[in-house]
Amino acid sequence: MKQKALNALIYIISLLPYWFLYLISDGLYYILYYIIGYRKNIVFQNLKNAFPEKTDKERLVIAKKFYRFFPDLLVESIKLKTITAEEVKKKMTLEDVEELTKHLEAGKNVIGVTSHYANWELGIHRLSLITNFPTLIVYKPLNNKDIDTVYNDMRGRFGAEMVPMKQILRHIVKLKGHPNISILVADQTPLYSDSDYFINWLNQETLVYTGAERLSRISKAPVVYCYIGRKPKRGQYFCKFVTLIEDPSGFGEHEITDIHNQFAEQLIRENPEYWLWSHNRWKRKRRK
Which residues is 139 bridged to in the sheet? Predict the structure, then answer.
């Protein structure tokens, strides 16, 4: 019953035109920033730790830009319930897509890496529409099963298969001999049982997943970064593909993990307002 009610609510809101959704977003900005102060302590502490070289005023500018973008992300994500394939293509253009397709057409699997940056949810739809090869979206299941199911159904509208991260190896083995792309949102926070590898990332000691590297080695797959960025016009994005690793066999332990995390960090530093600063990314500390 909860799933049906949530589905119905999202469906009704998603039918609203973008101009009206952006009016809602404008109102949400003031509510989240000025009235509720949604996760302000986390956002400002994250920014202070990540950019100690910046002044308080500079970090405040980034924070306000983030809070201005965040409601857009929320309403745009709801719109994905009913958006058409043609609208998806208009909303997100592709750059250097051959960096992805050349590997698939050569019969290789591809390990795609991205981050909680810009509109990664729209990116799922856009990636699903690029090729007929299987597209696996590796995700971390939510504790709330109703929300998890509703959003995964929405994410899979154009053919993407949502795969819990603990099941991805099984899916890749099942698809052996059939080129596919597995997309990992690599800036999530691991459990201690899932990783023990820390790096210096955004000026902080950060526990990171090594799954992209492991999958790349096991399937001998190239690693392609899916850089999703925002254009100046509201609601417009691009996805640029960059091959970071052609052949994983030539790299030492953790090198691939370091490379894709360093690439993501550079993108965030260039336009920090589009990263998910409300995410408590650094709650895992190195055990003594």
Answer: 164
